[in-house]
């Protein structure tokens, strides 16, 4: 005879507002520069953002950040800072406003960064973006600020390499 399993009720808790609330929170974090962990540099200007947002929206960012999680600077060339700012705004908000002049650069950059959501939105557009090539960004990381490793063969301790304050030369002034 098999034992009867102990069936307990389980509940599925869902919030229809969760995606919108998360998006609003992330946008707020970026605007207030809270928890940002990477700097995007373009035209001598810097935009601080979250790696997780970059990786969630761009296959190229995900691939590069998977390879090296210590990346703290991304240098983008081949387009204006306003285009990069529009790309980031799209990543955070799902929408952006861009001028006619910059649209072809936005599409070209989206292709370089492998941003499928933005690429899919512009599939029907007839843009000369195919002729524009945005170079792959540079992913940079600083060297860790750790102390130099201690040698496995430390120098022998002797009176010549120890600091001993000279007590005889001390004078007390009152």
Automatic annotation (TrEMBL):
InterPro entries, alphabetized: BTB-POZ/Galectin-3-binding, BTB/POZ_dom, SKP1/BTB/POZ_sf
Record-linked Gene3D superfamilies: Potassium Channel Kv1.1, Chain A
Comp. bias intervals (Low complexity): 150-161
Superkingdom, natural source: Eukaryota
PROSITE patterns: BTB
Pfam families assigned: BTB
SMART domains noted in UniProt: BTB (SM00225)
Residues covered by the BTB domain: 36-100
UniProt-annotated stretches for the region Disordered: 150-174
Protein name per the record: BTB domain-containing protein
């Amino acid at each position: 005879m098999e034992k009867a399993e102990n069936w307990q009720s389980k509940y599925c808790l869902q919030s229809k507002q969760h995606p919108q609330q998360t998006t609003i929170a992330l946008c707020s974090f970026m605007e207030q520069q809270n928890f940002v962990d990477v700097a995007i540099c373009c035209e001598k200007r810097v935009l601080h953002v979250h790696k997780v947002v970059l990786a969630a929206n761009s296959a190229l960012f995900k691939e590069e950040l998977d390879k090296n999680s210590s990346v703290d600077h991304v240098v983008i060339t081949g387009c204006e800072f306003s285009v990069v700012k529009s790309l980031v705004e799209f990543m955070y908000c799902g929408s952006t406003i861009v001028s006619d002049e910059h649209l072809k650069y936005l599409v070209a950059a989206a292709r370089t960064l492998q941003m499928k959501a933005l690429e899919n939105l512009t599939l029907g557009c007839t843009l000369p973006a195919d002729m524009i090539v945005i170079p792959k960004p540079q992913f940079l990381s600083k060297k860790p600020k750790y102390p130099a490793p201690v040698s496995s063969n430390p120098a022998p301790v002797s009176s010549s390499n120890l600091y001993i304050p000279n007590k005889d030369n001390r004078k007390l002034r009152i």
